[in-house]
Amino acid sequence: MDKKKAVQQSYELVRDKILNGQLLSGEKITEEKLATDLGFSRTPIRDAIKRLEYEGLIINKKVVKPTDKDLRNIFQVRMLLEGYSARCAATYSSAEQLATLAECVEIGKNGSYDEIMDANERFHQIIVQTSGNDKLIDTINRMQSIIYLFRKTVVFYNRPFLIEEHEDIYNAIRDRLPERAEELMKQHLEKDLDFCLHLINSQN
Amino acid sequence: MDKKKAVQQSYELVRDKILNGQLLSGEKITEEKLATDLGFSRTPIRDAIKRLEYEGLIINKKVVKPTDKDLRNIFQVRMLLEGYSARCAATYSSAEQLATLAECVEIGKNGSYDEIMDANERFHQIIVQTSGNDKLIDTINRMQSIIYLFRKTVVFYNRPFLIEEHEDIYNAIRDRLPERAEELMKQHLEKDLDFCLHLINSQN
DNA sequence: AAAGGTTAAATTGTATACAAAATTATCTAA
DNA sequence: TTAGATAATTTTGTATACAATTTAACCTTT
């Protein structure tokens, strides 16, 4: 296997620094500093920053600090796209996809912190995949980094009923109830949003 | 006013070359060639290409050639996001926004080719704006270039009922009928899609 | 002639130097 | 002191050189 190129490495390193809090919200990024930090030249760093700007993690040279409004906006888009995806899942999903969803729900009940984090992400990922719509998948993926920031809090603070909701969604999909699957997914995301907003606002 | 930077110029030049057919679907792009063509160095050209890749106009160094499936996918996302936007418009839109929408419909009836093109684009643009959701607006804008490619054919071949549909949507918004506005917008986009697909497939 | 391998050419990736622009600090006049 | 101008510094934008990689061309060998 060939080793990753500098752009890719830079991208991943900077992204991770942001996601795990080594680079704080509002902190200003300079190409030169990152370059010497990571041991690359400015060229690949610039590309990486462009990509992060595109994903919304960096906004004019500053690490993003999402406002309540941003959060609501992101979740609104998710509700529309993932709601539709859930409907698709209830209509199209294969036996294999169903099995994997069931597995994610199961891990959610008994897994370790990291396993749960992972399973929850996969649960949503699989449902989005069943839409079979690359543009839709792409749009969600681009919001993924920011979403990740919040999924972490939701799991860490152990939001009540999260797994139960996943299970309900899974059941609707398995039972081929498109309308219900969509509705449940939307409600589920709405609750995630409320939980995040509540947490954020009680911390400051 | 300060003159645009090389990246911005390159971006616009290359994009326009693609949109007006100077660069054909499937044609392969090389940085060096574009650089000497446009009289810049490779550096800004690379950035411009990256941006066009993000927008989906270039896919691994080739000018994109959207398939039927791509077209369906884009329109599906638009139906979800613009449908929701129409609902918002029917709920929130200001008197000024309503007036501008009415104006777009009017131009659609009597304007010149270029005016109609412009008015149709603005019609959709305004409705999307009323959502007040930056993420949503952003997502649509990123698909704008590809959408443009098709809007051109729709107007050029003078799709029947296009203006009437805009008017119906406008009326629903003005009369504050969110459900209806959403439904009409979705139907409208569905018809645009069918028209595009029909044209494309009858040409090849 | 076809499969495979080797060399050559084209293209992209990265580093670096310098120019342009933006930012910050410093100074001066009111 | 402070508003505004000017200089110093930092940071970004662009060009260019060279390295790495990919792609194309050209031989062999069967």
UniProtKB/TrEMBL annotation, chains A, B:
Keywords: DNA-binding, Transcription, Transcription regulation. GO terms for molecular function: DNA binding; DNA-binding transcription factor activity. SUPFAM superfamilies: GntR ligand-binding domain-like, Winged helix' DNA-binding domain. The keyword DNA-binding applies. The keyword Magnesium does not apply. It holds the Pfam family FCD. Residues 4-71 form the HTH gntR-type domain. Signal peptide: none annotated. It comes from the Bacteria. PROSITE patterns: HTH_GNTR. This is DNA-binding transcriptional regulator, GntR family.
